[in-house]
User: What shape does this take?
Amino acid sequence: MCTYEPQKASDIFAMYQSLVNEAIIPEELLWNACPKNRWGDYELLLEMIDWDLNVNPNLMDSHYMEPKPVAAPEVMHSAGYHESWICYRSLDYSAKELTVFPGQSVLIKDAAAYGMIMMQGHGTMGVWNIETPALIRFGQLTQDEYFVSEDAAKAGVKITNTSSTDPIVMLKHFGPKNPDLKVV
Assistant: This one.
């Protein structure tokens, strides 16, 4: 299963592994979120893990979110796009997937600021070029991630798909208390 995992900011951190690829992770990162007087207390590390959640054999049953269209699909499709809520069970964060069909130009309005990341396609978003890079070299800038301010989102962002064959697919992630979100 492919997952999209927007995360709530937190100051809790414990690196429960000692090696990532070939990089050795310093032990102090294991104890970073622990009170100094509990450093070395492995029981504390075990207590910090939500075991029920992490061993839940029915995780999909309790956490899967079927995409929910933001409007009637036939209305969106006739306007040249499709948009669905893909993360909608939390007031802390939410996300939408937007697809702009080949050769189409749409004006998309949202009630809140958001960050976006391109998953497929190329075109423009306002005055900015957008594209999904096939290869990123060290030091190279890309055109696949942007931030849209609340004012711009409310006014509407014009997205133009310049391809005659490929859709533009982007994920939009929102912060707390998105006014458009109806938590289910």
